Structures are given as structure tokens and as C-alpha cells.
Amino acid sequence: MSGLSHRRAAFVAGVVACLVFANASCNGWAVDDIPVVRDNPAAHSIGAALDAAFSPYWPAKLDGFSGGLYRPAAVVSYAVDWTVSGGRPWWFHVVNVLLHGLVTALVVVVAGAWLLPVGALGAGLLFAIHPVHVEAVANVVGRAEILAALGLLTAVLTARRYRRAAHRGTARLWFLATMAAVAFALLSKESAVVAVVFLALDHLLDEEPSHRPMAELYIAVVGLTVGWLFLWHAVAGAFVTTTVAFNFHGLSAGGRIATMLPVQLDVVRLLTWPLQLSHDYSPQVVPQRTAFGVLALLGLMTSGAVLVLGAACVRRAPAIAFGILAAVAIYAPTSNLVFGGGIALAERNLYLAVLAPALVAGWLTVWSLRLRYRRVMILAAAALAMVYVGRTVTRTPLWRDTQTVVIEGAIQHPESYATRIWVGGLSALAGHSASALAEYLIAVELFDRDPLIAMVSVPLALAMGRHRVAIDEARRAYDLDPDHPAFVGLLIDTYRATGDSDSAGAVARTMIAAAPRSRIHAQIYLNFLEAYGAPAWRVSLAQLRLDWLNLRLQAASRSIDSLPNVMASQVLDQEWCLELETLWPGIRALRPSVADSLAELVESARLPCDLPGDPVDG
Questions:
Q1: How far apart are CA 220 and CA 215, in angstroms?
Q2: Structure confidence at residue 261 as a pLDDT band (50, 70, 90)
Q3: Domain tally for the chain?
């Protein structure tokens, strides 16, 4: 292989990646592809995607829920594909495969800094065929992972050019290219927040001296990342806390870590021997653990050993060091060890973490050339490659459609509560309401810490006339998260639908007293009063509250001015106290004189209302 260059090795590895995943072009829309791409108007034209550039990744919120994700670059790529293909799914899959081939080629080029062409080719080939990539490549929405990897690896290569540039003007161009690559990665997926770590690792392991001070680049990348964090939080950050994985509901930070440390054994297995794959790592596939056990200890020891190996190879085998430490960096934000994330584990999140086994394979390829029995090593590597290719090719059709994914999940993990929910959804679509409700209730039996199940089970139970089931489920969801408007509204609507208006009213009053300054709660309360046929004065006060919270100050002021006359025409009782106490900050801030008049009316009626006398800022 004396004629092999790094460029040719990159080309070969990229082509192999495309060939191995070619059967993905037969897949259609599966699972998240449907809401994010197929049914998302923002993904159907470039103009619509640009208009939605400051919108969350998930196109619609489920009663206040969203994924807390912000990936405009991925959405624009979907829009480009839709424009080119007219919405044909095969085209999206072909683009995913081509992008995977491009990332594979970049892996070879990055590895070329430390490995001979034959070693870089070995690294690229393992990256190309690795079975854990199937979820990212064969499912359309996995593109976010691929695009983020494309941006990060490009940033590594452009930063190298910046360090080695002899002329100031050339260095400036590579500086800007690096910043553009980092920005692209950040706007593709949140995991690219570790970009500065990738650049620092490559700099640390680079054997060539740097001609440029790197502090300026690092500061710029950190500044860009911080700016992106603020943007992400402004667009989708309000929903981040609602998307903590249900595996951790009810657990302390220690319980979360005790649950996730055993999962690190699965991570190592998936990166080294990925024959058993799963699209589902929800409860009870990943069971909750409240105590630090033997598996947690093994997971901690394994993770520690991997880190020690990466650090020990910094000088002796920089390729291995970069692969391991970069893999740790890219996986860390989704590991749930530092903070809770939206999922316990997903194979698509390990896409770029395959750098670890890939670069180890590349180093071993070079090392084996020095061995006397290198033919044995070559045969062993070929056998392993055939196993990997076979698993990848047979796994790719799983993502043909949602039904295939769900059926495979039910067969593989009957203990999974998430799979039961999916099976219930398919049953409901087929018109089998009783079977669907049964699946939802089985899911609750398997794992009762997920309030979201009630959002689908309660309406179905009501439609079937199973009122007791509907109330129990709505109450369970409310008890799990009594402050979330989705579950408050669900319980109120369930009581109303079953004819229990008194209980609905009690929940509504508790809600508004607990969160008097929540616009969503105020809207739910107003909707309830209007549907319930509440007295006009109460509806008027609820509308006043909503106007105040939405800063419709003129309308709120007019309503406040009319309050003394309204109160004078009504029989005042304790029902007024709830309304006035929750409205008092706005009344006092907008109309202090009216507030004094109202306080006198309350005192003359001897109502036990708590109305502070000092003005309160709105």
C-alpha cells in the first residue's frame, strides 16, 4: 500500500460508508421524522425554514411541552431536501448517507495527523461501518448528529490550518472558517457545545509547532458558544426543564448517578461490540436505581479506566488519546452524570464517540504491520469488519417506518413502558380503542412516574365512557406535577367532562392561588370560568388578570376603574378574596386610588382578604 495517500484513504473510507448504508434509501418516515420533517411546514421550504430560524426544533408544543431543542441548521437542511425532492423520503435518506460518507472522510483526514495513511484508512473504515451509527444515519432526524460532527471535524481541520499559517491574512481566513464551522455545528445540535475541547485536544496533541497564538481563537470560540447558549435559552430554554428523562423522575442527584453509572457499561459495549442494539433505553430498559450498587461501581471503574487510558496515551499514542478524549467530551453533555438530560441513552448520541474505537483501530493497524504474524491480525480485522457490516446492513431496515420500529421494540423490550405507549398509539390509530387504553394502563403499571401518558390515555378513556379511569389518570398526572398547566388543565377538563364541576372549580382556584402571575394558568382559569358559566363579575376579574399579565394595560386599567361599581352591585363574600388577592399587585400598581376604594369596600363588608396597603410593582 505504498501508493496510498491520506487523500485516497479518505476517499475509499467515504465510499465504503456510503455503500454499507446504501439500503437506508429504502426507508420511509419513522418515529420523530413524522413531526419534525414530514408534518412540519418549516421543513418544507427554505423560506419557511428561515422564518422559523428562531423557533424551537420541535414544530409544535404538546400543551406547553417541547423538546427544549434548537437546531435551525438541521431544519434548513430538511427544507433544502424537501425543495429538491418534493418531499420524497428516499432523497432525505440518500443525503444522510452521503453526509455520513463525508464525515467518514474527515475522520481519516483528522487521523492523518498521527497515523500513516494505512492507519488512517483503518480508522475511517471502522467509523464507516460501525453498527451504532444506524440510528443516526438510517433515521432522517439523526442528521442533526451528522451535521454537528461535520462542523466539529471541519473546525478541527481549519484550526490546524490557522495554527500553521505563515501569513497573517491567510491565518485570518482560517480563523473565520473555524468560527463558521463551530457556528454550523452549534446550530445543528446542542452537543457541539464542546467545540473548544475538540480544538484544544487537537492543539495539545499536534506535533507541529504553532505559528499563531491560540488564545485569541479559544476566546472567540468560547464567546461564540456562550452567545449560542443565550440564544438557545431564549428560543427553547424554557422547555429544557420539562424534558428531563423520565428515568430520573423522583430521583435525587445521587439516584440519577446511581442509575446512569451502570449505563456506562452499555456505552462501552456499544462502542466495542455493538451487536445488540436498541432504539429504546427508557424505563424499565434502564431501571431506576436509588442506591450505589455493584453495577454502578463497575460502571465507575470502567469509565475511570477509559479516561486513564486516554490520558496515558497523550505522548505515546496521540491518535488513541484524541479518539478517547474527544469521545468522552462529545458524550459528556448527554451522559446524565453531571446533570439530567432528556434521554437516558440514545445510540445516535454516540455517533461521533465512535472516534474512540476508530482511532484505536487505526493505531492497531499501523502497529500490526510490525508484527511477524500480521496476516493473522489482518484476517481477524477482516472477520470483525464482516461482522460489523452484517449487523449494520441488517439493522438499517428497522427504520423503514414507525410500525417496524415499534414492533421490533415490543419484541426486544416487552418491559419498556415507552414501547407500550407506542403500541397503544398504533392501536388507537387502527381504531382499537380498548386495546390502546389497555396498553397505556400497562405502561403506567410498568412506570408510573410519567405524567405525559395521561395526555393520551385520559381523552381516550373519556371517549370510551371510562370516567373513573380518566379521573384516576388525570389525578395521577396532576399529583406528579401540580404546577404544570398541562396537567392542571387536564384535570379540570376531566372533572368537567364527568360532570363534577365542584371539583373542577376547586382545582382551578387552587391553581390560580398557587401561580397568580402565570399567563398560562390565567388563560386556563378564564377558559374554565367561561365554560362553567361563572358569574359575570368573576369572568370579568379573570379577564382583568389576563390583560394585566399580558401587559394590555389600557384594557386592564378600564376594568380596574369599573371594579368599585361592580363590587357595590354584588353581595360580597369570601369568593371575592381569592380574586382580589391574586389581582392586588396589578390593581395597586395601575390604580392606587381605586385600590384604596376597594380596600374600604372589603373592610366594610368584613371580608378576611389579605390586601397589602403598600404599592407593589407589577
A1: 8
A2: very high
A3: 3
